[in-house]
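User: I'm curious whether this sequence folds into something compact or stays loose and floppy. Could you predict its structure so I can see for myself?
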Amino acid sequence: MSRSKSGLKPTEAELTLLNILWRLGPATVRQIHERLSESQSTGYTTVLKILQIMHEKSLVIRDESNRAHVYAAANSEIQTQSSLLKDLVSKAFGGSTSTLVMRALDESTSSEEIEDIRQLLNKLEKQN
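Assistant: Here's the prediction. I'll summarize afterward.
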């Protein structure tokens, strides 16, 4: 089964780099590598290779106008999260958002998180 490049989901390593790009904004490989090095040991060439693959998959855009290429996330954090969540709900929860939410909410959910969820549900209810 063939998938379009834009339909490819980011791997864990790619999501790590996307999270850095969402925080930094457009950045060079060196800037991305420096930020990544704060939390894990990964070689510069590994970061470069992952970014090249991500560019092929249309996960990032690349500005080649300067000597040091500048990479930026092709989609916003919210767009990417929504896409991944829809895929997860479809594949793992039979399309049921409520099953996902019930599974996600357990004893470790804090009172603050429950209150945030309650406020979101009230807001959504008012919109509908």
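Summary: Residues 1-6 have pLDDT under 50 and may be disordered. The longest strand covers residues 60-63.
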